[in-house]
Structures are given as C-alpha cells and as structure tokens.
Amino acid sequence: MIQKIEQVIELKPEEIYSFCGKNDRTLRIIEEQLSVKIVPRGNYIKMIGSPEAVEDAKKQINKLLEIHRREGGHLAKKSFEKMIGGIKENGIEIVEDFLSSSINVPLKRKRITPLSLGQRIYIEAIKKDDIVFGIGPAGTGKTYLAMAMAVWSLASERVARIILVRPAVEAGERLGFLPGDIAEKFDPYVRPLYDALFDMMESEKVQHYRETGIIEIAPLAFMRGRTLNNAFVILDEGQNTSIDQMKMFLTRLGPYSKAVVTGDITQTDLPENSLSGLIHVQSVLKDIEGISFIYLDEKDIVRHELVRKIVLAYEKAGKKESITKKGKDVKHPEFLGETTYQGLIQKLGSPAKHPSTEKPEADTESLPGTIAGKYPKHLKDKSDTPVSDKNDSRD
C-alpha cells in the first residue's frame, strides 16, 4: 500500500479567490498537473498524496504563489490558468519564461502575456527578426500578439508608425457593391485589426493616430511602389495573397522597419487553381537569416475550448484529402495531399515548431524588436513602462 501524507500551505485572505480561482478552477488545474489531491480549507490549501508528490507539489505551489504575489495578484485569470497548464510537461520554469516574454502596452497600462509555448516563441521571434511569418489555425493569437508588439514599438518610439495591411478578399461569398469612399469600403475587411487595436489603445487615440497618419490601414493592392520606412507593418490574412502579391509586399520594407505576416494556410479564399503566397513563400525564404517562420497549432489556441476541438476535427477530416477549391484539385503537385500544418511543414522542409524551450540569452546590444545595431542611437535609450496584466481580453 502506497503511503500518503498531508501538508498545508497558508494563503492570505485576499489570495483565496485570486489564486484558487472561481469554484477552485485554478486548483483543479494544478491538481491535474502535479498528481496530488488538493483540498482547500478556509485560507489553507491541503495537499494529499505520496511523500515525493506532495513535496514536489508544495515546492511548485509555493513558486506559483511567489509569482502571483510578485505580480501583485494582477495576472489575468485566463493567463494564469493557461500558463500553469504546461507545468507537467515543461516544469514550473515555463511560467517564468512566459512572464519574461510579456509585452507592455503602456497606452492602456496593461501587460499581454503569452499563453502557450508557441506564443512565447512567436513573440521572441518578432523581437529578434525583422520579418516574421506567424502561421497557424484560428484562435492562436497570431494577429493579436503582432498588434501588441506593434503598439509597444510605437509607444516606446522604436518605430514612427504602424501600417496594417489586408487583402480585400471575401470569405466565400460576394458582397457586391459597398457604399462610401475607399476607407469605408475597406472597413469591413479590417474589422479584426480594429478589434485588436481598440483592446490596446483608447478609441480617441486610435482616431487621432489615424488622422495624422501614425496608424494607417490599407488594402494590399495599394502597396505597390511604396517604401515603408521606420514602420511596424502587419499583413493579416496572408493566406489570401497570391505569389506575386506576397513578393510585392515583402519588397516594400524600408530601413528601421519590421514586418509580421499572419495567416491560416488551411483557410484560403483565393480563386480555384491559385496557390497561396503564404504557402509558396515558405519554401522560397526558409533559409534566409533574419526571416523566421513560426508554426502555431491546436495547443496554442486561446479562444473557447470548442475552437480547439473544431480545428482538430477539420484537420483529421482533411488528412486524406487534397488541397481543393470548389471540389477541384489545385494544380500544384508539390503540395497536393497536404491540408495539415505538420504535413505541409515536413514537405516544405521547414524547421519543426517549438525549436527550443530554453530561455533565450539576453542581448544587451540590441533592443527588443531589433537586430543589434539596426536602430539609430536616439531610439535606443527608451525604457519600458511598468504596467499590470489586468483586462487581457484576448480571444
């Protein structure tokens, strides 16, 4: 018979709800990760299990409490629950790693924390490289995290403006004539970008920045001939670009600029027999230094739990099918038969997702979001603004 022991940890009265969660939800997640039974009693947490498991659980929970107290109890509940969900696989250090990759958004005095290992690697890639491709299914935070990095870069004066670009492609239906000027016609296509932007800036500030050109939202078709200097550029829905459009966009980048391209290669709305520029570009640019391809998957989905299940169900259903449009095969044999991320990645020969769980070494010569020496000196002396993690409404 396995010997069982009990140990207790005392909480401060104000920590009972913030640490344990509604209906002790956080404790249930910790219980699953640490293989002990956890019983809350007043302001005490009782752990029951084998001596080794209880000692390990006590150490881990005390570490979580230390982080919780250090952050002032302001970690968003969803952020905290998501972070501790990786303890069993990656160890308690994963929580510290997530927090070290947080993005400060001083314009709303909040902090956005990666909620998965894939999201953390995505943020670190944006900090390091000047062109980053974030590829993954719906709900993995591709656009939201890119927008957070753009707002942080603007607020800390590392760039002079933000440019948000999207192809004007309809999702499987024709809307017909849209009234208004070009901005009003394009507005429905960029609503997801506005949603992320308003979550990080006051609406009055967004309006002012748009009027003064500090924030620009533009159709991809209007990019030809431009040079984008000192800007943070986001191309959303990159899977809806053609090969020529992707090449055109990437060659717009000017000095002191950064580009992030996001997209879901399983949800293209291009005409039949057209290959997505986001699929093609992976095999063309995969070996160029300064360009990163980050692949997110169902483990990185942070929307409703059902979204993850839906993505998995569609991926399973598509494993034995060719990439199709309207029932006809796309005539690109290199990619036929692959509708899953892992299948395409293997065929393209790209590096595997999540290349490392080690915390990157600090680079004292470069700024987050740059490569060493890339920015002018007057942009190197800006410091971050300490902020809290409240109201992280990412979905």
Question: Would you give an account of this structure?
Answer:
The chain is 36% helix and 15% strand. The chain has helices spanning 15-20, 25-34, 51-70, 77-84, 87-90, 93-100, 117-128, 142-155, 182-186, 191-198, 203-211, 243-250, 277-285, 305-318, 341-348; strands spanning 5-10, 37-41, 44-49, 103-105, 110-112, 131-135, 161-166, 215-219, 231-235, 258-263, 291-295, 324-325, 328-329. Strand 9, helix 12 (243-250) and strand 10 (258-263) form a beta-alpha-beta unit. The protein has 395 residues and is of the alpha/beta class. The protein is elongated and about 70 Å long. Mean pLDDT is 76; it is low at 322-340 and 350-391. The strands form 4 sheets. A 6-stranded parallel sheet has the order 8-7-9-10-6-11, with helices on both faces. The longest helix is centred in the N-terminal third of the chain and has 20 residues, at 51-70.
Helix-strand string: EHHEEHHHHEEHEHEHHHEEHEHEHEEH
Mean pLDDT: 76
Uncertain stretches of 5 or more adjacent residues: 322-340, 350-391
**Which word captures the global form?**
elongated
The percent range for strand residues is 5-15%
Q: Which strand order does the major sheet show?
A: 8-7-9-10-6-11
Number of helices: 15
The largest β sheet comes out as: 6 strands, parallel
Identify the notable features of this structure and list them briefly:
single chain, 395 residues, alpha/beta, 6-stranded parallel β-sheet, 3-stranded antiparallel β-sheet, 15 helices
